Amino acid sequence: MRSLVLVVLVTAVALARPVRAGSMFKLPPVVGVKGVTATSTFADKHDDYNARKALAYEVHMDMEHPDPVLWTAWCEGKPSEGVGETLTITLAEPTQIDRVRIAAGVWRTDRLFAANNQITALTVLADGKPHAVSPAGKKWVEVAIGAKVTTLAFRIDKVKKGRMNDSCISGIDLERGGAVLAPLIGVDAAAVTALQPAVDAIQRALSAPDHAGLKPLLEFPFSNTNWIMDKGYGGAQPVVSASWKELVTACAQLAKHDEVEDADPINTGCPAPANYDPDDDRPPGVRTIGPGVVELTWPSHGEVLVTWDLNWTDRWRLVAIGDETL
């Protein structure tokens, strides 16, 4: 059976549209985070104010907002102003943290920042050691840590009351050696060590003429979006393969189609390597989108960024290939 699978994939990849495989640059530095918890959280059916949203915050950019906009936030859930409420980050292992940066308040818009409570005093507890800081306006505040720590707690000490009685933190950065560490939330220390080798192995398997070694690196159902179709031919929807057998069939379909000279691209579940351009001055990105799930972005010197979603269990597995438009 294995030999049949390989023959099908050899044909499919050999005849598929050329995609620049390239060599992956190193991922940005990451930090393993066992969990992010809070003493209370504002209740919302969409889980929009979950504590991890402060650390794995979303950034939006568009023509109306050329500067990055922090789009998400953790908000405490007490009926009072939330003084004494605490957000705690528990790292997967003792980790050197040089400093933390905090965006206190709701930063999505100036109107929301002014309408909600504004935190004017915070205590950061690094393994219990207190560091006081006084946020003022929509400005990042910094706290020097300079130590290996396992827990970082952020306690609200004082607020300026707003019309909306919610106290929130929109962003937290953990820094080491001048670099912001991308958080991998909901994982153990092994996941941090395994991420870069897993990414390299997936790209090699996707680039190989027979997709050799790819099967154990995928998680099913597996979703594939053809970025060429999506941005060049009017918009493609993700194609989901429920099993390895379905993926092999998709690659066979692609191979047969590409035997036709000048045929228009078709949208199938057969995956291709990341179309990563090493000359792009934007680095690869790492963002947690759920516990144990990260999204990687591969800039390709254009408006389209190829994305990979990886899930951590006993290893990293590729769950989906997609794209984003800047």
Helix-strand layout with pairing:
Blueprint: H1 2-15, E1 30-38, H2 52-55, E2 59-62, E3 65-70, E4 74-75, E5 86-104, H3 110-115, E6 118-126, E7 129-133, E8 141-160, E9 168-176, E10 179-180, E11 182-185, H4 189-207, E12 218-224, H5 227-232, E13 239-241, H6 244-258, E14 285-290, E15 293-299, E16 304-312, E17 316-325
Helix pairs in contact: 1-6
Give the biggest sheet: 9 strands, mixed
Gap between N and C termini, in Å?
Answer: 43 Å
Structural class: alpha+beta
Q: What would the principal axes of the Cα set say about the shape?
A: elongated
- % residues in beta strands: 35-45%
Give the structure's gist in a few sentences.
The protein folds into 2 domains: 2-27 and 189-325, Nuclear Transport Factor 2, Chain: A (Roll); 30-180, Jelly Rolls (Sandwich), CATH 2.60.120. 20% of the residues lie in helices and 40% in strands. It contains 6 helices and 17 strands.
Walk me through this protein's architecture.
The longest helix has 19 residues, at 189-207. The chain starts with a helix and ends with a strand. Mean pLDDT is 87; it is low at 1-23. The radius of gyration is 22 Å and the shape is elongated. α1 (2-15) runs parallel beside α6. The chain is built from six helices and 17 strands. With 326 residues, it is α+β, with helices and mostly antiparallel strands. The protein folds into two domains: 2-27 and 189-325, Nuclear Transport Factor 2, Chain: A (Roll), CATH 3.10.450; 30-180, Galactose-binding domain-like (Jelly Rolls, Sandwich). Strands 1, 4, 5, 6, 7, 8, 9, 10 and 11 form a nine-stranded mixed β-sheet that branches. Strands 13-12-17-16-15-14 form a six-stranded mixed β-sheet.
